[in-house]
Specification:
This protein is an alpha/beta fold. It contains six helices and 14 strands. Helix 2 links the parallel strand 4 and strand 5. The structure holds glutathione and fe (ii) ion (FE2).
Amino acid sequence: MFFRQFFDENTWTYSYLLADSESGEALLIDPVFEQAERDLHFLNELGLKLIYTVDTHVHADHITGSGVLREKTGCQIGVSVHAGILNADAALKDGDVLHIGRYDVQVLETPGHTHTCLSFVCDNRVFTGDALLIRGCGRTDFQQGDAEQLYASITNKLYTLPNQTLVYPGHDYKGMTVSSIAEEKTNNPRVSLGCKKFIHLMNNLNLPQPKRIHEAVPANMVCGCMD
Ligand SMILES: N[C@@H](CCC(=O)N[C@@H](CS)C(=O)NCC(=O)O)C(=O)O
Ligand SMILES: [Fe+2]
């Protein structure tokens, strides 16, 4: 498995490239619109063929690169079935499997940060979007977010993955790049509170709205294709 983590410094967003080096088939998780040229250049350099882009959720803080990458490569776009995005190619749901050459990428529904949140499992890695962050979790105060649902997604789904599974989040605001299920089970300060205190904390964060929410959400509802 060929694997790379990419970073968008303006929005602290991670994108992840998974590829089968034998067939050259590739999948990109959470591409960022402004980074499409970087991503295309990298794919070309390595001779990889983009088969899928997938978004872990309808992002509120940045515009997805999925649409522009589909225009340039002919890849398919996968998003949650619950997003109702009409110009996506694959409406993903729990249990779906995407095939990248010899590798399977398994879809888990992990709602709570938003109702469209998905995680993706491939080999010993899980890509958690903004459900489980390193020593944190996504906020639950917009896009049908729900703290109780997020707690259940983390404890009943993500925490049932093998302890050694590596956790790759959608963002990190402190410069951390990777964790593991075992590490989060022991050290995640929010989830360790237990369900009731977690809900209370999440419902009282009083965070300012993401700066680009009014631009990003409508753009992401059409895969970032804005013309
Ligand atoms: N300052 C950032 C805020 C980004 C933000 O709210 N990020 C979401 C993920 S889309 C989150 O859950 N952050 C976790 C937190 O701040 O606790 C912006 O304006 O874009
Ligand atoms: Fe998010």
